Amino acid sequence: AGKGYDALSGHNGSEFTVKKYMGKSDQDTCFRETLTGGWWFKRCNEANLNGRKLTLLLPTTKPRGITWNIQGDIKAYDYTYEKVEMKIRDADFGFCTGFSKS
């Protein structure tokens, strides 16, 4: 995301899932019908890089496709992204660079 906000931290401890297998409590608080792809849906759609690229159909609705919610930015859900890239590294990444964790 452009501002560098970490929208994934809220999903820590969540299992990777698809909306079909979301728990009842998640279904009650999320826009379940608009979630797509597999993701860590702990807090609904705080971040979802597997969402569809959507466009706004009606002025009263918000797209829920590729999402990266930026804390404090009330328009973050309105942003659309052409593409996203996710990079994953080991928690002990420092081992590879010579700066291991103590």
TrEMBL record:
It comes from the Eukaryota. Signal peptide: none annotated. PROSITE patterns: FIBRINOGEN_C_1. Residues 7-89 form the Fibrinogen C-terminal domain. The keyword Isomerase does not apply. Keywords: Disulfide bond. The keyword tRNA processing does not apply. Pfam families: Fibrinogen_C (PF00147). InterPro entries: Fibrinogen-like_C, Fibrinogen_a/b/g_C_1, Fibrinogen_a/b/g_C_dom, Fibrinogen_C-term_domain, Fibrinogen_CS. Coiled coil: none annotated. Gene3D superfamilies: Gamma Fibrinogen, chain A, domain 1. This is Ficolin, putative. It comes from Ixodes scapularis (Black-legged tick).
